[in-house]
């Protein structure tokens, strides 16, 4: 995921411009391939992608297990998916391609879907949208899927009402939190509040982030590689901002805004699913 700074952090740093049209060309291979496998010990295709796919464009379920009936409240309703930190569009593109490939064999037809790609980096938004639209242009089912973009800061809670306040079935934020260069780690909890505001009452937030603690870095050479990479990305390239991140603080933040929270750790990666956003004290 490209770097995502608050306005205060952008000025005078390389983070806002590090991911551009050139660096995004090798992002999938280097970051999602090599780094996730050998540095963070959480291979993308084994852990992150299956989690993303499990919460992408879900089918309407049978109402009583009898036949192929779709509950009336779901019938014809557009599935709304918001992907925050679009990056190269890898996760959306892979999940979409998987759904389209298997659609003919599904007993229950899918409702139409609208995908909204959100990022603060315009290069990412452009690349991600082109990638997703490229897949749709190669299928005869592109009328089922709409693609939109939102240039917005996840730490800015003033989401325009016409952009989907309480309108999304699922919000995803994969490899986003460790790229937020905020003043304090606690500020990152605003991302969970943003997601809760964007979701429908029965919606879910799904995501993952890299944890910096030594207990997650492995032993021997694996630990050395992880610590060096964290130093390099936080202090030199300044594309990470996760030196103070902890699993405990993230879990507290999730539980403050969601009624159901599940967290697991694979290697240095924390994966999470949070359901049923809390509405107490939220503006409507």
From TrEMBL:
Entry-linked SUPFAM superfamilies: S-adenosyl-L-methionine-dependent methyltransferases
Protein origin, superkingdom: Eukaryota
Domain Methyltransferase type: residue ranges: 82-205
Coiled-coil ranges from the UniProt annotation: none
Alphabetical list of Pfam families matching this protein: Methyltransf_12 (PF08242)
UniProt-recorded name of the protein: Methyltransferase type 12 domain-containing protein
UniProt source species: Triangularia setosa
